Amino acid sequence: MGKAQKYVLLGDATYPLQDWILKPYQEDENLTQRQLQFNYRLKRAHSVIENAFLRLKARWQILLKCDDCSLELLPTLVLACCILHNVCEAHDNPFNEEWLEGTEPTELPKPCQPAPAAMEDSRAEQVRELMCQYFESCGEG
C-alpha cells in the first residue's frame, strides 16, 4: 500500500488497538463489507496460529509439561522445539496425526474485560485501515 509497516500481533476485541496489536472491528450492523472481510481474515489468521501451536505441542510434547523445568531454561527449550519443528517440516518429516490425541487446544490467557478506550492508540486505526485496504486489494480468500 506504499507504506512500510512493522510487524503486528493479532489480538481479539478485549485488547486495546495499538499500532503493534491488530484487533477486529467491533461487530455491529454498521460494519462495511470491507471491515467484515478484515474481521474474517483476522479470524482465519488466528486459526492458522492456533493450529501451528497445536502441531508444535503435539510433535514436542515436552512443551505440555514445561511446569517442571526452570524459568531460565524455558525460552531456550521453546526455541529449540520451534527450530526442530521447522527442520522437520522443511524436510517433509511426516506429522503423525495420532500425536494430536491428548493435545487439546488451550485458551491462552487474555484480558477478561475489553481494554478501556483510553488505552487505544489513535495512530493504530491508520494501521488497521491500511491492512483493511490491503485485504480488499487481495480479493477473496
TrEMBL record:
GO molecular function ontology, one term from the record: hydrolase activity
Subcellular location: Nucleus
The organism of origin for this protein: Loxia curvirostra (Red crossbill)
Family stated for the protein in its record: Belongs to the HARBI1 family.
Name the UniProt record assigns to this protein: ALP1 protein
Keywords: Hydrolase, Metal-binding, Nuclease, Nucleus
Cofactor or coenzyme needed: a divalent metal cation
Domain DDE Tnp4: 5-86
Cellular component per GO, a single term: nucleus
InterPro entries for this protein: HARBI1-like, HARBI1_dom
